[in-house]
């Protein structure tokens, strides 16, 4: 009678898997650290909101804001838009 094929041992399977994992680890590059993004976009967004609040509450009393007029709205909204743009960089 012919001999049946033998099954591969568990050790051989582990070795092959380790080799395959090692090859993929070499090819995949680790993402760069972007730990600065969350504090930055939160700060920029809060500054934009704070700018708008100060403008609406005491805009006529603050010398720079009274000179800018309605441009203060664009500055505040620009800060919030910049925060949104920074938030897209977060991984």
UniProtKB/TrEMBL annotation:
Transmembrane portions of the chain: 36-58, 70-90
GO cellular component, one term: plasma membrane
Pfam families (UniProt xref): CrgA (PF06781)
Annotated segments matching region Disordered: 1-31
Keywords: Cell cycle, Cell division, Cell membrane, Membrane, Transmembrane, Transmembrane helix
GO aspect biological process, one term: cell division
Membrane topology field: Multi-pass membrane protein
Main location: membrane
Cellular compartment(s): Cell membrane
Ranges annotated as biased composition (Basic and acidic residues): 1-25
Role this protein plays: Involved in cell division.
Protein family: Belongs to the CrgA family.
Name this protein carries in UniProt: Cell division protein CrgA
Gene symbol of the encoding locus: crgA
């Amino acid at each position: 009678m012919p001999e049946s094929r033998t099954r591969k041992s568990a050790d051989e399977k582990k070795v092959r898997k380790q080799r395959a994992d090692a090859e993929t680890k070499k090819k995949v590059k680790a993402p760069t650290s972007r730990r600065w993004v969350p504090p930055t976009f939160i700060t920029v967004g809060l500054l934009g909101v704070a700018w708008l609040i100060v403008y609406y509450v005491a805009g006529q009393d603050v010398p720079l804001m009274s000179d800018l007029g309605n441009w203060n709205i664009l500055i505040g909204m620009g800060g919030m838009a910049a925060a949104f743009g920074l938030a897209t960089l977060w991984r």
